[in-house]
Amino acid sequence: MTILSKKTLLASVASTVIITAATFNAYAGDDNAPFNGGYIGGALTLDKYNSGATVTPAITTTLNGKKKVGGGIYGGFGAQMDQIYFGLEGGFYLNRNPAPTLSFGTTNTGLKAKNTLDLSGRVGFVADRALFYGLGGFTSTKFDTFGLTTNASKRLSGFRYGGGIEFAITPKISLRAEYTRANYKKWSVASGTDNITFDPNDNRFLLGATLRF
To answer: Which of the given ranges, 41-55, 59-73, 100-114, has the highest pLDDT on average?
Structure first.
């Protein structure tokens, strides 16, 4: 799989915002539909990555995950039709996950989650100024190994799903709380005579502030 550059990832998020800006005139937010139209936002995240690793030849392993704080930006477009909501959102997040997640023998190793690109669809129900939504879509995270004989780096794709609640403080400003889980493709890495197969997943809690156009 080709490793995407940070510039490519940022361009993907920027394109989402540009598309949003081009269409907001037709869907401007108002008091009756506070979640209608294009938006951008910033978020703080709390992630717990798990390596899900196995080692061949069979060795007793100890697995653990560490919670780490990160942050990012997101943008997208939503259509509110009475109490029903549909939307598309892209996001770019920087992670911080430097702690060992796997021990076997005398080796402490694991994965560093560097950055994440998300592209998700959102479907929800609006009650007054609160939006209750579920989401699902594509996610891609760059992982680095550490502690191995020869370390490696790879971007792994996966599926992210979850839900949250967003509350409109004004027709243009809202706050959100969101929980999602991501499951990634497996990745096998050789280290000396051992072969490690990572099967990572991520549990993420997000707090965000959103500005609508």
So the answer is: 41-55
The pTM score is 0.80
In a domain, 1, yes or no: no
Short-list 60, 35, 32, 63, CA closest to 48:
63
- With respect to residue 31, please indicate whether it lies within any of the assigned structural domains: yes
The C-alpha atoms of residue 158 and residue 141 are separated, in whole angstroms, by 8
CA dist., res. 13 & res. 179, Å (int): 21
Identity of the residue numbered 201: N
Range of the domain at 103: 6-212
Give the pair of three-digit tokens for residue 26.
């037709």
> Is residue 167 a part of any domain in this protein?
yes
Domain assignment of residue 29, yes or no = yes
Asked if 139 and 160 touch (Cβ cutoff 8 Å), the reply is yes
Tell me the pLDDT tens digit for each residue of 147-170: 888 889 999 999 999 999 999 999
Where residue 208 sits, what CATH number does that domain have? 2.40.160.20
State the total domains in the chain. 1
| Residue 82 buriedness (CB in 10 A; 0-12 / 13-18 / 19+) | exposed
User: What digits encode the pLDDT tens for the residues 118-136?
Assistant: 999 999 999 989 999 999 9
